[in-house]
Amino acid sequence: MVPVILGVFVLSFVLARVVPANPALLVVGLQSTPAEIRAEEVALGLNLPLWRQLLDFIAAALHGDFGTSIVTGHPVLSDLAERLPATLELTVASVVIALVVAVPLGVLSALRRDTWIDWLAHVVSLSGVSMPLFWLGLLLIMVFYSALHIAPAPMGDLGIIYQSPPPITHILVLDALIEGDWPVLWSALGHLVLPALALSTGTIAILVRMLRASMLEVLHQDFIRTARAKGNGAWRVYMVHAFRNALVPVVTIFGLQIGYLLGGAVLVETVFNWPGVGSYVTSAILASDYAPVEVFALLSALFYSVINLCVDVVNAAIDPRITYN
Amino acid sequence: MPYTMPRKLGSAAVALSSLILGLAGGAVSPTAQAASGPLVIAYPGGPRTLNPWLAYDLTSDAMILNTYDQLITYARVKVNGQTQGTLNAFAPMLAERWTSNAQKTVYTFYLRHNARFSNGDPLTAADVVWTYDHGMKANGNLSFLASEAAIRSVQEVNPYEVRITLAHPDPMFLPIIAMYPFSILDSKVESHQPASWNDTHMLGSGPYMLQSLDPASQAVFVLNPHYWGPKPHYSEVILKFITDPSVRQQLVLGGSVGVALNLSPLALQTMAHNPAVTEHTNLSETVVYFGMNESDPPFNNVLVRQALAYAVPYSTLIQQVMYGQAAPMDSVVPIGMPTHTGAGFVYRYDLAKARALLAKAGYPHGFTFTFTLDASRPDWVQDANLLQASFAKIGVNMKIVQMADAQFQTALAARKMQAFISSWDSFVNDPGYHLGFLMAGGMQTNAANYNNPTVNKLLAQAEFDPNTAQRNAIYARIQRIVNQQAPWLYLYQYKTTVVTARGVSGYVFYPDTLIRFFLFS
């Protein structure tokens, strides 16, 4: 896990810097003199060789200093810590929506092949993988906010007339729930629905397809016939015998999809102006603000690695035949 | 019996759908522009810095203008019955009045006695002197502009009187000190802070003070309780940083924001007659041009440049790319800037003439060149495609290389691109400033490397000429020379459109295109 994270970090560090863009120029402006640009390059450490910049960054990071954003002027870690809860809230909400929609739809489409529900599953999964996230986000805004007027304005995670509750978990929905602030909870949930729905579509599409295929494969196996012959009810046959065995490949894919959700959040947060890590990183990329981009890449690698570890553990729990040396 | 579970699953799916729609529907807030609510303004991006000496983007500049005061400000005048700002006349701000000697080299500013910073500190001549002195020593806009305005020294005569001495009379002095980099800082606080403190803090004497800021999502302003001037209508102003222009359009149409900026030309055209919004369109001073690097062939040949000037589909660019949200250019100096003249601009879309000039230049079969495109600008992408198609008709093959914005800006500063599209908006509304940056040989901002000894000599001659008429005549002559030599292909001059939702009024256009949100009502 450590070599993977380190590899991703070094790669993102080098890639960000080999792009021929000069952040110093962006800080001081095009109308500045060459001397002013050079002075800013020195202030940002950009005059040093690449290897030296990398070593300096790693040395500082080992002491907990992950650099300062040139856009916000704040330490990157504190910026990210402030925004990460909003991204986690969005990601978890989209995972919940994905599971609640995809699992019944995937199972139903396998059990009722070539019926309307199977075709619906086909349409949902095809649309989910075909539509770019930013476009889907705009479409949802136009339909639910502009045309039907049933969604709140896509301007963040809370209506502007509300004050956020005192931070306890830093996750708005949970904090409002803990405080019993129902108007804020209602507003926060309303703001959460469309971005979470947009973010979940890709995952729903993949899960439905995987679950359908996996269920169909399992349903044709001998142990299902045996289970039926032993007089088990349909619920038990499908849920205990078929569904559990169909889950192993689905869980693996689902793990990868959770990683994908973090990347997708960057786009969705930008469209819905969600105050999370995604919009912060987008601003940093546009301003050639290296440190936030590098630390985000590091966090993403860490996130992927942890999710993969969790997938392995869950798979072993589902299927006792799976062991890891 | 076999379908007991599917029914349960179906019910779950229906329940979930109802929950999603119910939550979304139930959470619709009252619109932001309710009479008692804050004013919400949708900007395309957050500020890069809060430092008046370093800011140069629309969001930062506007935030500073609404939070700080300068000694004087731009006056508002009536044009065709509408109030708008002018960069050529001035009104009192922190200085209630000012005088100068006959040579216009010594100015005395008399400060108002009731000005205070938002922390309650009184604003005195010591703050003005501290701001100018420190700003002139630091890197950034103030030091650069102070040298452009020939400021030599700033002295405190008494706590409410400041004297500024110039090295020589300079017509740019008053226009420059009315700009946001000359915002007066609180010396009592600033003198104990590092230079970078202003990057992330705002402490001014203007109508608003910054309550909170997240550069990625929003800035909240509230009234400065110590403000000396009339109380603005809105006690709270929220700037929302919304990257996608389509979302900004939907928000202003839905009334969730009161003001939306930088909408796409197509969006503006489609909502032009929508009663829910009002479009305020004015001509900006931002010019968009196609630069040709004159350091190397074939663009070191004036005939080649003139040939391409006859192959630009001028009206197509304005109508089909900008949907009328731009005006044609006929000079390197924008319409609205003093001395602008289209004299010598003879080019129109005429491919036969373009072919003839190419043949005369020694390229009867055309040539191939590399064009660098900033792909982050949708109109430039379309411009490039139309120009490529048009040039192909005269045998000129334009190879397009795309770059991200940050990469393009770095390439622009290096001045090595063979051809490119760029834009320019002069900080100071003065032809000497404008032409000096863009047409003087060797300037870093002269990315086309135009270097004409006559133009260079004329620019130097006009710079210190105290005779305004003579100076203006020189700048008009330079424009004629440049038009004849065609170092740029003129694409268009942007219009700027601010869209306000129903119920929001008081928008005043200033040629610097910055929003004074304290004027909204």
Describe this structure in words.
The complex is a heterodimer of chains A (325) and B (521). In chain A, 75% of the residues lie in helices and 0% in strands. Chain A is mostly helical and 325 residues long. In chain A, helix 1 packs antiparallel against helix 13, helix 8 crosses helix 9 and helix 9 packs across helix 11. The longest helix of chain A has 39 residues, at 234-272. Chain A is globular. Chain B has 2 domains: 7-244 and 502-519, D-Maltodextrin-Binding Protein, domain 2 (3-Layer(aba) Sandwich), CATH 3.40.190.10; 284-495, Dipeptide-binding Protein, Domain 3 (Dipeptide-binding Protein, domain 3, Roll), CATH 3.10.105.10. Chain B has helices spanning 4-26, 58-65, 125-137, 141-148, 173-177, 187-190, 197-200, 245-253, 265-270, 302-309, 314-321, 351-360, 378-392, 405-414, 431-439, 453-463, 468-485; strands spanning 39-43, 72-79, 82-92, 95-100, 106-111, 151-158, 161-166, 208-214, 218-223, 236-241, 259-260, 277-292, 326-327, 368-374, 397-403, 419-424, 488-501. In chain B, 32% of the residues lie in helices and 24% in strands. Chain B is globular. At the A-B interface, helix 2, helix 3, helix 5, helix 7 and helix 9 of A face helix 1, strand 10, helix 8 and helix 14 of B.
Features:
A: 325 residues; mainly alpha; B: 521 residues; alpha+beta; Dipeptide-binding Protein, domain 3; eleven-stranded mixed β-sheet; four-stranded antiparallel β-sheet; 24% strand; globular; disordered N terminus
Give a short overview.
Chain A contains 13 helices and no strands.
The helix fraction of chain B, in percent, is 25-40%
| Large-scale geometry of chain A | globular
The helix tally of chain B amounts to 17
Q: How many strands, which pairing sense, and closed or not: the largest β-sheet of chain A?
A: none
Order of helices and strands of chain A: HHHHHHHHHHHHH
Pair with the most extensive interface? A-B, 79 and 71 residues
Strand-residue proportion of chain B: 15-25%
Overall mean pLDDT of chain B: 91
Number of strands of chain A: 0
Quick one: biggest sheet of chain B?
11 strands, mixed
> What is the beta-strand fraction of chain A?
under 5%
Number of domains of chain A: 2
Spans of at least 5 consecutive residues with low confidence of chain A: none
Poorly predicted regions of chain B are 1-10, 24-32
Shape of chain B: globular
The CATH class of the largest domain in chain B is Alpha Beta
CATH homologous superfamily assignment of the largest domain in chain B: Periplasmic binding protein-like II
Q: Number of DSSP strands of chain B? A: 17
Q: Which fold name fills CATH's third level, the topology of the largest domain in chain B?
A: D-Maltodextrin-Binding Protein, domain 2
